[in-house]
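Ticket 4471: requesting a sanity check on a complex prediction with flavin-adenine dinucleotide. Repro inputs:
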Amino acid sequence: MKLSFSPEELAFRDEVRAFVARHFPPHQPFTPGTADEDRWARALLEQGWAAYQWPVEFGGTGWDLTQRYIWERETALAGVPARMGGMGMFMLAPVLYTYGSAEQCRRFLPGILDNSVEWCQGYSEPEAGSDLAALRTRAELHGDHYVVNGLKTWTSYAHIADWMFCIVRTESAARRQDGISFLLIDMRSPGVSVQPIVTLDGRHSTLNTVTLTDVRVPVEQRVGQEGQGWRYAKGLLTHERTGLAYVADSTRRLRRLRETAARTDTGAGRLIDDPLFAAKLAEVEIDLIALEITELRTLAETASGQAPGNQSSILKLQGTLVLQRLTELFVECVGPQALPYDFDERGLREEMSTYLIGRSASIAGGTNEVQRDIIARHVLGLS
Ligand SMILES: Cc1cc2nc3c(=O)[nH]c(=O)nc-3n(C[C@H](O)[C@H](O)[C@H](O)COP(=O)(O)OP(=O)(O)OC[C@H]3O[C@@H](n4cnc5c(N)ncnc54)[C@H](O)[C@@H]3O)c2cc1C
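Returned structure tokens:
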């Protein structure tokens, strides 16, 4: 199994590094929530790298898995986003160009590519999260449109979204996964109402509930066949599940944690020299190295044609745990200063809010308990 890069891949890595450094050199890092976001989105579009996961014919790069990995790693290490397009870019677009009509691709992909149209994902409902097939939002066909009624929850970015891709029940089938359809809903349609959910960090940052009351959705906004939505949604969840190990992001956090701990005076010396703290740091670093090897192993297998399969559950589970431990250690490191520095003058989140919002990583995208179940059954072969 090949775990190192070829000369061509190393040359590509250098090209990526140079591109990122040209726009955000180390002395001028990317700052989220500022004009840097528009500047980076424009640079990506001009370079032709905005939709780095898409096939060339739809405006993507056509990069192979290793190139995508290098791109994601280098951008995360430099602290810039790998992509600017939100949920439309990495979750909906693959469904559209795989299962959608040519007309749907023409209509929706350009707005996703240039980041001018914001999308949100309407899957979860109050009684349907891990058990998504229990969803109850109904869509009834009336001539050339559906009438949709139901309640979606935990809908990230619904408050700023122009459109929502969602799954709804179009018929009651014997198997719950059947009879589900995939609809694209204009958020300005009459009957769509968005309510904020305030999260543990004390803010309405991303989450919402979306109430759908007699919402009319033209039939041409259904992707694929009626009743086949589960299949499309499952494909989409696989997309969501890759890249969830946060290895490069955690590597950057670890580096920053080391630097901060080296500057922190405990009264009895530097925190980084404290044996207890150093042991915790070493423990999380070892887990991170093991995670990186697992990620590279998965990449090597996938690049040689095997499906990523259930290993992605290991990456999601361990990736989340490492990330959460790092945010805990950061709070421990800055101690009482964590709270006063919670929001700086630009309203950016700092250590405490990163720690608090980081708890949700083990729920979103499939909970850790569910990942453990998958690992037990399908990786370890326990019944
Ligand atoms: C920050 C964040 C953003 C999100 N964004 C979106 C979004 O944009 N769109 C969207 O549709 N959804 C979104 N979600 C919802 C997310 O997909 C669900 O929260 C997740 O699937 C879990 O569902 P639930 O919250 O209903 O919990 P439940 O499924 O009710 O789970 C409750 C508890 O029971 C455990 N549990 C459930 N089933 C099992 C089982 N079979 N075995 C063992 N334990 C089990 C779970 O692990 C959990 O601890 C988001 C969630 C979060 C936290």
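Notes from triage: Residues 120-124, 129-130, 154-156, 207, 360, 363-364, 367, 369-370, 373 surround flavin-adenine dinucleotide (CB under 6 Å). Leaving this open until the requester confirms.
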